């Protein structure tokens, strides 16, 4: 509700969705059966008693004739029946959603003391802080005394964290090797909808409710039986998709036609624009990252990503586009000149059509002609992109100029036209993927949910990767060497655990993790700060060796005094240090920040500082914690509150960008000589159990086909002594996330189903049947692709 701007906006959106469905179906049937196109195209003359011109109603077929034509067409009747059933389903869902929205509205007004008019101007940090405070007073969650920020994120992002983890472990069949096209990614909204239907909320899904995995999936004794049952369910859902394919395909075509035709007419080059693909949003998403946080981060990298892709325009295509644009422009100029001289030219058949098509042709050709002032610098652009998206395969760095890197990046950042084409093909391809690809992975899926599900007090069953526990899921090559106990099967790929932990800690500075995790975060921040200030004061940016992380930091900061005054600790006043840090950082990072194009950060910070200073005691609170400032969104006016939140959010984004680039550079040094295991190199599964490493086999957990190929042990990776010693000295062991998680800690009392360290792979040891749980209400996060919402009811 917070991201959708309140109850009224959500209600109107739901109503217009119902009206839109009726309009698309009714208007399409009307056009197909109730219009005489011979009269419309002047192929048939209409006899009028007077000499009036032919009007549009003359082309409409009489109502009785139209009804007869509809009844006699069996296919149209079938489509109307299917559409009616689907509309009734949406109507029932609309009524249910409105009831849930009303309860959430009451929760905001009565519990959080926030009116719907204030909600669009409040930051998420303020809403979250109020929920934490309400828990202390009213115990909205009965299972624990205090809620943490991580508990709130777990509840909102429970299912999305599972999806991110499955994509990270290459469990979902979304990457394919095709004979001619090579390596391809196919992940659409329809396919994602079916994945969620099978795993989370559909009939016979793995979850019995919104917060609890079914008990039978927590035990490993009947894994083969459960896998066969899941495979059978996937088969039937695939067959249902196959039977409904014609109806869904017609709907997709009609919806795309009504949605994009006007846009293409107004902006013909819009299909040549790019967008972050659905797979890219899932691959680049941190654990415990809300939709608006993800889209804000990717939007900041959009401009640099577009410039990078534009570096690879084909010279041959550019020559052809220039000449085609010249010829088409010449014809267009003549037609426009004739029209200006005498408007009767427009009455000539196909002249208006020719003008329109020629204009579209010229616009499309111009999109293939690069800017003559553009400088080819792919490595620098890719570095800027990394600062925002935070994830990038190792082999991209240093190979940004290669077409292989460009093609792989295009899987994350695709053309809008490709996105539309994939959505149109989705009804045909989705049943094939479900029946022939996903069904074969049923045993691996069962093992995944059993091995990587933990019960968290106050949050229910969550994905263990979302705990961001370095000890359980850290990767030795990503600053976790000597601190993780995870096997290859347990390790998150591409530094997902480490980067997600840093992102969550920076985004939620009031979060209090375990002591070991706090030490890991503070050590990393101190190292980044030390390298940044050392590189800035001791080294010139253009005379640095690329073999050291400090050289990267210096190049990234550009200026000699960029971050000399920025302190990344938690115990210094955020506002006081942000004044110097942002003013200097804005000049160095202006290409990374969209705010700098419309609002000067220095002026914004001074305005935010004044807003904060107007509130009594605010400066002292900030000085004590350095964290409360980001939760302050109400100053002397709503605008100043928003400005404060904007500037402080920009500070956090810049801080995370620097940490992400530093972690990647350090990983690049540590992993020299190691076989890459990121998404573009590792296999989706091993078909033979002989490929399971000995260290994994010795753990004696149920085998599946999810293990990657054998890789050398991280301890055998040759690294420089200086880098290795600094890495070990700068980090200490990180452990599990607090006492609220009932995982990895052995059996507990109270008749709960808990994870036991004695069960292979952290499986489930059943003491007795789990007691039913009820959880308090939390506002739901809106979905970026409008999937069916899962609403926690407010009691």
From TrEMBL:
GO BP, sorted A to Z: autophagy of mitochondrion; lipid transport; piecemeal microautophagy of the nucleus; protein localization to phagophore assembly site; reticulophagy
Keyword Acetylation in annotation: yes
Catalytic activity: a 1,2-diacyl-sn-glycero-3-phosphoethanolamine(in) = a 1,2-diacyl-sn-glycero-3-phosphoethanolamine(out); a 1,2-diacyl-sn-glycero-3-phospho-L-serine(in) = a 1,2-diacyl-sn-glycero-3-phospho-L-serine(out); a 1,2-diacyl-sn-glycero-3-phosphocholine(in) = a 1,2-diacyl-sn-glycero-3-phosphocholine(out)
InterPro entries membership: Autophagy-rel_prot_9
Keyword Magnesium included in the entry's annotation: no
Gene Ontology CC: one annotated term: phagophore assembly site membrane
Pfam families reported for this sequence: ATG9
Compositionally biased intervals (Low complexity): 706-747
Location in the cell: Cytoplasmic vesicle, Autophagosome membrane; Endoplasmic reticulum membrane; Golgi apparatus, trans-Golgi network membrane; Late endosome membrane
Principal location: membrane
Keywords: Acetylation, Autophagy, Cytoplasmic vesicle, Endoplasmic reticulum, Endosome, Glycoprotein, Golgi apparatus, Lipid transport, Membrane, Mitochondrion, Phosphoprotein, Transmembrane, Transmembrane helix, Transport, Ubl conjugation
Bias (Basic and acidic residues): 674-685
TM annotation in the entry: 12-32, 74-92, 234-258, 316-338, 350-369
UniProt region (Disordered), positions on chain: 607-636, 668-795
UniProt function note: Phospholipid scramblase involved in autophagy. Cycles between the preautophagosomal structure/phagophore assembly site (PAS) and the cytoplasmic vesicle pool and supplies membrane for the growing autophagosome. Lipid scramblase activity plays a key role in preautophagosomal structure/phagophore assembly by distributing the phospholipids that arrive through ATG2 from the cytoplasmic to the luminal leaflet of the bilayer, thereby driving autophagosomal membrane expansion. Phospholipid scramblase involved in autophagy by mediating autophagosomal membrane expansion. Cycles between the preautophagosomal structure/phagophore assembly site (PAS) and the cytoplasmic vesicle pool and supplies membrane for the growing autophagosome. Lipid scramblase activity plays a key role in preautophagosomal structure/phagophore assembly by distributing the phospholipids that arrive through ATG2 (ATG2A or ATG2B) from the cytoplasmic to the luminal leaflet of the bilayer, thereby driving autophagosomal membrane expansion.
Family: Belongs to the ATG9 family.
Stated name of the protein: Autophagy-related protein 9
